[in-house]
Amino acid sequence: MNAGRDTYLWLAQRISAMILGIFVLAHLITILYVMRDNLSAADILSRTQGNVALMLFYGLFVLAVSVHAPIGLRAVLAEWFGLAGKAVDWSLLVLALMLAAWGFRAVWGVFVA
Amino acid sequence: MTSTSDKLTVRVWRGAADGEFRAYDVPRLPSQTVLDVVTHIQRAIDPNLSYRFACRVGMCGSCAMSVNGVARWTCRTHVDKVVDGNGELELGPLRNLPVIKDLVCDMRSFFDKWASARGYFHPTRNRTDDLERISPTSRARKRADAGVECIGCGVCYSSCDVVSWRPDYLGPAALNRAWTLINDVRDGGRAERIAAVAGDSGCHACHTHISCTERCPKGISPTASIAGLKRATALAALKGEL
Ligand code: SF4
Ligand code: SF4
Ligand code: FES
């Protein structure tokens, strides 16, 4: 056990959870609100492209997901399947980077004109 | 108190990890405790039955067993409270501990974890020093008081799923003890204790399921103590002390 590392992971998990709690709600409310008028994909893109505030919102969202999901998975793997250790931690780090890469790519995709 | 029927059917675990439940008929008596039932079986039916008890009044913490699947002090549990509609009762050893025989568990891992959590006092004074003056209303003392009455019965430990999932998890009792000591101003072992209780086999493994708090016969909330440890360890980590 590595007390310092585990404690930082726990903190990161809690902070990312708080961010996600608020952001998921904002995300869902926005979708429901926006879709009342049956916007087309082009309508949506015209609103997201060049919208820095939206890019920052979803950028932080992606970051929180990339931090939160692998740490949660780490606990699930340890507790349900008895899988823990260096190999698991490195694999989860790769997963975190992949989640971040996919997410940022999507955020960038709807931002650039 | 009056009994509803004159006979109880009690299924008792016999054996160690491998074993089986064996059924016994026990006369039902008013104000009968589960410990009375076990004692009757051993004295009148099957002298080979092994179980532990000492005080019979909820002070020693040695009589804990699984009663209908729930960890309880058997000496302080009335049959009336736990018997099911058919007059049946199922008694087994505590969960999460190796079974030695019948209703007796090996408590070593439980107490070894208290030591691993540094659940013992580090004195900072000697007999020639003055006594420390501690206000009973100070915040630290109130926090320590909230958990200090633990008698080490293992009920919480046996009720915690995280202990089943992570065999090296220190568990609610040891962590509760560590929290009372962290709030004891006379204690000098804070830094080592904070390091001992942080991490994947320490307080950060707790899922706040609250089974420990629900089941503790002393009304202690190890969950609250563990939440305190999570705050204290996180603060220590942010200050670079971990
Ligand atoms: S905290 Fe409660 S249940 Fe746990 S060992 Fe102490 S007295 Fe028993
Ligand atoms: S609150 Fe924590 S220690 Fe208590 S039963 Fe739940 S997981 Fe175990
Ligand atoms: S026999 Fe002592 S607590 Fe039950």
Task: Explain what the structure shows.
The complex is a heterodimer of chains A (about 110) and B (about 240). Chain A has about 110 residues and is mostly helical. In chain A, about 15% of the residues are buried. Chain B has about 240 residues and is α+β, with helices and mostly antiparallel strands. Chain B folds into 2 domains: about 100 residues, Roll (Ubiquitin-like (UB roll)), CATH 3.10.20.30; about 130 residues, Fumarate Reductase Iron-sulfur Protein, Chain B, domain 2 (Orthogonal Bundle). Chain B is about 35% helix and about 15% strand. In chain B, helix 4 runs antiparallel to helix 7. Chain B is elongated. At the A-B interface, helix 1 and helix 3 of A face helix 10 of B. The complex binds iron/sulfur cluster (SF4) (2 copies) and FE2/S2 (inorganic) cluster. The site of one iron/sulfur cluster has 13 residues of chain B, from helix 9 and helix 10.
